[in-house]
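User:
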Amino acid sequence: MSSVPPKLLFPIHPDLQFAGLIAPFDAPHHLRRTEALPYREGVVSSKPIKEGSLVNVGLDRDCRVSKKLPQGVRVTVKFDDPDTNYVLKPKGKLRGTVVSPHLPRREAGLYWGYSVRIANSLSKVFSECPFRNGYDVKVGTSEKGSDSRLLKPQSFDHLLIVFGGVEGLEYALENDESLAEDDVRKLFEHYVNTCPSQGSRTIRTEEAILISMNALSQFIHK
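Assistant: Predicted structure:
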């Protein structure tokens, strides 16, 4: 999602008819019309101009960028002038530059959303890591793991937290012929249970993520 109306990014589709029932995700980079940052997410407008493109960034005026881009493309824009009065000014030209979506995090330490990568097996979770030096800390989650409250804060560049399906990470290992390891614990630096005495037989992945991120917060925050 971004600062612009969702309908510009996602057309009407039967699979999304109940999306409005999902709990809202009010992330800090989903800026409101009255909020200003040096960066903003946007969608390239269909309005024709002689040079460059106009980007709908969810404000009263579109932002002009020098690149000629196809209509409907989602981009991250850095404004030429980060001053709040300039960004939120209702009239006049708003100019910016299309930048990497990683720049707000690298340059200003801002959370700027996430990307999705499909791994067709447990081994590919590790082997297809997008980072040059891989994940330096890997955490597996399981009801068979040790109590996550025993973890001590640890520094890292790239942390990986892995959640199994209904039958756990053990089942994922058994069905991955690319991995010679017999003990799934040995694939991780830490193999933990983030919900001791859970009571229910299973925990849904969407529930496990929220529980685990809270349980591991002291370990994650450097």
